[in-house]
Amino acid sequence: MTEERKRSRSRKLTNGGRNLVLLGVFSTIVALTTTGISLAVYHNSGDIYLDRSRPGYLPDEEEIESEDVEEEEYDFGKIETLDAETVEVYLENLNAEARSLDEYSDSFDASALSDEKLGISE
Amino acid sequence: MTAFFCQPILNVVAISEDQEAMIVKRCDAIKEDLRTVQRDDAKSRVHLGTYYDDILSNYITPLNVRLVEKNLSNAGFIDNQNEFVKTKTTFVNDFTKYQQMLEELVAMDCKNEPEKFYDELVNVRQRRKTMEQDVLKMRRLISEHISLVESMRNKL
Question: CB–CB of B154/A85 below 8 Å?
């Protein structure tokens, strides 16, 4: 009887150990699958190309400094009235935004990938 | 019929032997240059996207809502906003495609397949051209919106 109980207990322990290993394997498979899916979504959605926390893509010092200077953002939605004066302020702010935008107007110009730039011109 | 035969054939670019040799020789340097372009483009994309979002949510949309409330809106404002939203989405999608192509180009074996590499480079250039056009179109739409507001101001 005692012998039988010992064997039963030993079997339970063996099953417990096997179950623990199975749980570990299952958890690893689930973790790898979900990580793989997340990385695929991250890549295919294009978010990877906007992620500037990647090595080599970190913001320059100048950018960090300019981000530190907090300026109150203009938002027409917060303005209650619509008259000549508010429209004038609106245009003033929008033109300033447009001027800032113009600094990036040649962002995708052809020269960056030209034969000359890449050193493969004849 | 003539127009059909005059269509440019994509991907077939004559590459000279000298160029082929230069690609093989400068393969690593070219890839480094391409990575730099990738990084600079990512920076530009983030800045441009931020400006576009800001202009749409802080200027164009709230103004149009106010104009509708005051019965001052017209088709020009609505069309401009719709076109702005559409082009912004195109800009975002084009950038993803462009970066994917650039990434594939960087991963190519330019030492052993210089011709194939050059063909792909030509395709990436075309995609980059599309990006340039998107940026110009967005700027044109902002200018159009400014003109519409200036005309409306004179009526207030």
Answer: no
How many domains does one find in chain B? 1
Domain boundaries, chain A: 1-69, 71-122
pTM: 0.81
**Per-residue pLDDT at A47:** 86
Number of H helices, E strands in chain A: 4, 0
DSSP code for A75: -
| Best-predicted range by mean pLDDT (A13-17, A50-54, B23-27) | B23-27
Decide: residue A7, CB within 10 A, 0-12 exposed, 13-18 middle, 19+ buried: exposed
Tell me which residue range forms the domain holding B120: 21-155
Give chain A's contact residues with B (Cβ, < 8 Å): 45-46, 49-50, 52, 56-57, 59, 73-77, 82-84, 87-88, 90-91, 93-95, 97-98, 100-102, 104-105, 107-110, 112-113, 115, 117-122
Distance, CA of B77 to CA of B67 (rounded, Å): 9
The CA distance from A61 to B78, in Å, is: 40
Task: Give the integer Cα–Cα distance in Å for A91 and A85.
Answer: 10
